[in-house]
Design brief:
The chain has 490 residues and is an alpha/beta fold. It is 31% helix and 22% strand.
């Protein structure tokens, strides 16, 4: 590929004779640069790529893309310098160009919001496939091309990996790509230049304030997705919906479980222990949905998927039928078989709102006590820790407070922040503190009573735990199985 082809649609300084040179590869990691490569200087949270231009040049990079002229110690001047207003945006567009703009051969659907992104992407994939389309999926748990599963390192990949994935999807016959789009990805311009047929907003509750600082900044990052889509599909019941849609130029489609004026409404909602029933009302049609996934949050996820699917002109009856066959997602209200007279449920809830919702769902259908085991992530927003404690205490009969991913923080310090949010006096809830998560799960299983529901919140689909700088294997399904074996025969 020629340099001028790589920089197509990117505002940049004049290329001169450099525009015709052949490019062997592209990278934003100076350690990967080689002869004939382009190195892009990106300013990160902890490091500035401009400081590594000399290293890339010494490795043979023939072009340096930067936001400022590179006059660094060690630079020989052998590499051509291309100046751009934003290297993050340039990197995203360069990756698209490098792979031949595969996203333009796909119908892109982006889902953003604090909670529900994963479930909505899987529901949409189910609906689209039921309507005869081959679908790619990009998200937190895994990436998929049709039925083929590929590993996922980030909710929304780096632009190079993202467009590589789009290229695979297009090559293997996918017509649609459904993807989770995180606030970090939007802030870091990872999807810059992508055109989405539809974008879905699920909700906005406190999370990632360690990165964004304020809820307003968090919302502003999310809003970027709706400035690059042809249609916005929005949860009208969320308090932030008005600010999200303010000033948008694209059509807005709304869904709701409370407002009859919304475009698509859930009526006659009837919870079951193993799911929920409701009527989907919209477009002068009524569809009876019987979900196999419990909880009011599942109604909202289904509404989001349905509203988006109908916006994409999918057949109403086939869409409703597909929702009735939609399966739950690993780590989202996932029931773990125990063969005992108590229930174990694993859920990814790691925000105050997410924890409140899953606790409320489990409380509605459990026969005995709701025992909630949870922790909070280290090196993340500390202010949500007492709020999560308050949310769990308000709906649980017993708490087991433990670790999530402590990262570089001391587990005991995180737990102290959690304990500060527990109510006292008449509202106090009994609890046990066990910092080691494996030990905590064993204790909870060992002390479960008939009819109890044991909710393991926070890890969900994750099969690891981050302790200091070490990542260890931790699959809660395996831990529960080990604990059950210790109990012996029922």
């Amino acid at each position: 590929m020629k340099l001028y082809e790589l920089l197509r649609d990117i505002p940049s300084s004049a290329l001169g004779d450099a525009g015709g040179q052949d490019i062997a590869g592209i990278t934003c990691d100076s350690r990967r640069a080689g002869p004939g490569w382009v190195f892009v200087c990106i300013r990160g949270v902890k490091a500035d790529g401009h400081r590594y231009a000399a290293q890339a040049e010494q490795a043979g990079a023939s072009v340096i893309v930067a936001e400022e002229a590179i006059g660094c110690p060690g630079c020989t001047g052998s590499a051509a310098q291309v100046l751009v207003p934003s290297t993050r945006k340039a990197w995203a567009q360069m990756c698209a160009n490098w792979f031949g703009r595969p996203a333009e051969r796909l119908h892109l659907i982006g889902i953003t919001g604090t909670n529900g992104k994963t479930s909505v992407t899987y529901m949409l994939k189910t609906i689209l496939e039921a309507c005869g389309h081959k679908v790619g999926l990009i998200g937190t748990i895994q990436n998929m091309i049709g039925d083929r599963v590929l590993p996922s390192a980030h909710t929304t990949p780096d632009p190079y990996d993202l467009h590589s994935m789009f290229a695979l999807m297009a090559a293997e016959g996918c017509s649609h790509a459904v993807m989770e789009v995180s606030s970090h990805a939007l802030d870091q311009e990872r999807v810059s230049g992508c055109a989405f047929d539809a974008a879905v907003f699920t909700n906005l509750t406190q999370d990632h304030l360690d990165y964004h600082g304020t809820m307003e900044n968090y919302l502003a990052a999310k809003k970027k997705l709706f400035q690059m889509c042809r249609c916005a599909v929005v949860n009208a019941d969320d308090p932030w919906a008005g600010k999200l849609t303010e000033g948008l130029s694209c059509p807005i489609v709304t869904f709701s479980a409370q407002r009859d004026e919304a475009d698509y409404v859930a009526k006659n909602i009837r919870p079951r222990p193993d799911g929920v029933d409701f009527e989907l009302v919209g477009t002068a049609r009524i569809g009876r949905v019987r979900l196999a996934i419990p909880g009011m949050f599942s109604v909202y996820n289904a509404l989001a998927a349905a509203a988006c699917g109908l916006t994409l002109s999918l057949p109403f009856d086939r869409l409703v039928e597909a929702l009735c066959h939609a399966k739950g997602v690993k780590g989202r209200a996932e029931v773990v078989p125990t063969g005992r007279d108590f229930t174990v449920v694993i859920d990814y809830a790691h925000t105050p709102d997410g924890l409140e919702k899953i606790c409320k769902t489990m409380k509605e259908c459990c026969r005995g006590r709701l025992v909630t085991l949870f922790g909070c992530g280290g090196d993340r927003d500390r202010s949500k820790r007492p709020k999560m404690a308050a949310a769990a205490a308000a709906l649980s009969d017993y708490l087991v407070i433990t670790s999530d991913n402590p990262r570089t923080e001391e587990p005991e310090a995180i737990i102290a922040d959690i304990l500060a949010g527990l109510p006292s006096g008449e509202d106090a809830v009994p609890y046990t503190v066990i910092p080691g998560r494996v030990e905590a799960i064993h204790w909870a299983v060992r002390n479960a009573q008939p009819g109890d529901t044991l909710l393991l919140a926070g890890k969900g689909h994750e099969t690891y735990q981050v302790l200091k700088e070490e990542v260890i294997h931790l699959d809660e399904r395996e831990v529960v199985a080990d604990a059950l074996r210790e109990l012996g025969q029922p």
